[in-house]
Amino acid sequence: MAEKFDVHAYVTDAIIAAMEASTAPWRQPWTGEKTGAAFPLRANGEAYRGINVIMLWLTAVQKGYASPYWFTFKQAKELGAHVRKGEKSTTVVYYGQAERESEDGEEVRFSFAKAYRVFNAEQIENLPPEYYIEKATEARDLGTAPDPTLEGFFANVGARIETSDEPQAYYHPQHDHIHMPPIATFHSANGYYATLAHKLTHWTGHSSRLDRLKKGRDRTAYAFEELIAEIGACMVCAHLGLVPDFEQSAAYVESWLRALKDDKRLIFTAASEAQKAYDLITQRAERNPSTLAA
């Protein structure tokens, strides 16, 4: 009997291999590069979410794909297109729910995850032209002056952001505020807003919001929260057309690798929590569309 495919182990092992090669899939400065849109898209234009964003980012960077669109073999065929011979698929994860009968005869609903395979538009011939359009934009050259659009975006989220000459950026969970040094002290405005995105992701974990930050956390829990904040901040930066700012030390990365090797479901949880943080931030910001980055 064939061994059952373990989707959690497969995905985690791929991410561990990338991190050990210093190419963590959420760490790619896609803005201004030829890696397509910030977020990978399904054939119908719907954005992928959670762990699938990370997996498709990883493949797009490794292969240099510019198109954001991904198709199953069947979806390509339905459009009169075909996957080129020899092309290899990328594994993504489908989450669903089903029912089964328990030992006492009751119907019980349960969640499951299973893998399926997709191909980037650049692996497929004869798709409609719009699927091949390069979606990348030029990198934002912001200098060190505040950007009114980005200022509006972050202000509309509603976090209390304090500025002083103290040369540290941090989120204070007890006082529920973010502290930032003046933007003029940063080498670029991009660096300022990318750092703010990281701190804002921590802010989403407050008990009055996503309730992710628990008291008495150990070192492993702190490292896990930093992993969530880094992935979440990269999602926010992708949304705004910014290059993410990577401030994590080698010690954090080592902790992540150790934790991922011990728990094959951990990266799924981190990606899910990062997605929730990103959703909260963008939903709050989009209450006023005029604050969105172009």
Q: How would you concisely characterize the structure shown here?
A:
The protein is of the alpha+beta class and 294 residues long. It has 8 helices and 8 strands; from the N terminus they run ααβαββββαβββαααα.
Structure write-up:
There is one protein chain. The protein has 294 residues and is α+β, with helices and mostly antiparallel strands. The protein folds into two domains: 7-30 and 33-132, no CATH class; 148-291, no CATH class. It contains eight helices and eight strands, in the order ααβαββββαβββαααα. It has helices spanning 7-20, 51-63, 73-78, 148-157, 189-203, 219-240, 250-262, 266-285; strands spanning 70-71, 82-83, 90-101, 107-120, 124-125, 161-163, 170-172, 177-180. The strands form three sheets. It has a three-stranded antiparallel sheet. A hairpin with a 5-residue loop joins strand 3 and strand 4. Helix 5 packs across helix 6 and helix 6 crosses helix 7 (250-262). The longest helix is centred in the C-terminal third of the chain and has 22 residues, at 219-240. The termini are far apart. The model is unreliable at 31-36 and 290-294 (pLDDT under 50). Its EC number is 2.7.7.-. It holds the Pfam family ArdcN.
Whole-number tally of structural domains: 2
H-E order: HHEHEEEEHEEEHHHH
The percent of residues in helical segments reads 25-40%
Largest sheet properties: 3 strands, antiparallel
Give the uncertain stretches in residue-range form.
Answer: 31-36, 290-294
Distance between the termini: 54 Å
User: Average pLDDT, to the nearest integer?
Assistant: 86
Radius of gyration, in angstroms, nearest whole number: 20 Å
Number of strands: 8
- Sheet with the most strands: spatial strand order: 1-4-3
Strand content: 5-15%
Question: Structural class given helices, strands, pairing?
Answer: alpha+beta
List the quaternary state of the chains: single chain
